[in-house]
Write a structure and sequence with these properties.
With 251 residues, this protein is mostly beta strands. It has a domain at 81-250: Sandwich (Jelly Rolls), CATH 2.60.120. Helices cover 6% and strands 31% of the residues. It has helices spanning 128-135, 204-207, 209-212, and strands at 80-85, 88-92, 107-112, 119-125, 139-152, 156-164, 178-179, 187-193, 196-202, 217-220, 232-235, 244-250. Strands 1, 2, 3, 4, 5, 6, 7, 8, 9, 10, 11 and 12 form a twelve-stranded antiparallel sheet that branches. The longest helix has 8 residues, at 128-135. It is elongated and about 70 Å long. The two termini are 29 Å apart.
Length: 251
């Protein structure tokens, strides 16, 4: 659908078996610029409903939503893919305390620049209660984390990605709550350029930990050495290229 003072027409197949009688449909829409109205400039909206016949002839693009806004349509394989934005991010310095500047949400630091802050690392939190509810009784097919790099010491850098089990923001970094595969990273991405956002797939074995609660969020660093090729920072916060989880699952 288009936006920004343009008229558009949409088509939607609701693949369900309807019983005789009155049925109510909820129409939801949004706009990126200014205001939006679900109507024509000179009159009300018009909706045409047509019985298309045998539902087996059409792709199932209809799905149930409880109004919570997180349920996704199933793909061709029947899996659901739901995206969860970060609800908090924090950076920590070499002594495991908060980074005194840009500590709250703005940046996720990784690696060592100099002796002032030492070996830096970050934690990223999500609405784990919501994730656990969505995944109850589910089988995870794939889990991915989205990160957007704002800066590297060089043109590109390397990041170590792990997991943590915090449900809220810890005041200090505690390695006992972080799984970084003995400091080698559960996932390692090399040659990540500045100003680039990527979805990085996490091994499905780790994905199962989000079902059990062993893992509840994502950790970045610490780097394995003080080499400045590991130093950089990613976009933090909860909007504008913020960190995200995308979990693909079936029920």
């Amino acid at each position: 659908m288009d936006h920004g003072s343009y008229n558009t027409t949409g088509f939607y197949n609701d693949i369900r078996t309807f019983t005789p009688g009155t049925h109510r449909l909820l129409w939801c829409f949004g706009c990126l610029n200014t205001d939006a109205t679900l109507r024509g400039a000179d009159g009300p909206s018009q909706f045409f409903i047509e019985d298309m016949g045998d539902v087996s002839l059409f792709q199932n693009t209809g799905y149930a939503n409880d109004g919570g806004g997180t349920t996704s349509a199933p793909d061709d394989s029947g899996n659901f893919a739901t995206i969860y934005n970060a609800t908090w991010t924090r950076s920590y310095i070499g002594d495991n305390s908060y980074r005194p500047s840009y500590a709250i949400n703005e940046r996720c630091y990784h690696g060592r620049y100099d002796s002032n802050y030492g070996q830096q690392k970050s934690l990223i939190g999500f609405d784990y209660n919501g994730i656990a509810s969505d995944l109850s009784g589910a089988t995870i097919a794939k889990i991915e984390v989205y990160l957007y790099s704002d800066h590297w010491f060089y043109d590109a850098g390397a990041v170590l990605i792990g997991t943590h089990n915090h449900t809220s923001i810890p005041s200090t970094w505690n390695s006992g709550n972080v799984d970084m595969n003995s400091g080698q990273g559960r996932v390692v991405v090399d040659d990540w350029p500045t100003g680039a956002g990527y979805w990085i797939e996490i091994p499905v074995g780790i994905a199962s930990e989000f079902l059990s609660g062993t893992s509840r969020g994502v950790a970045l660093g610490p780097a394995p050495t003080t080499e400045q090729g590991y130093y950089g920072y990613f976009r933090g916060g909860t909007s504008g290229n913020c960190p995200k989880l995308r979990i693909t699952y079936s029920k």
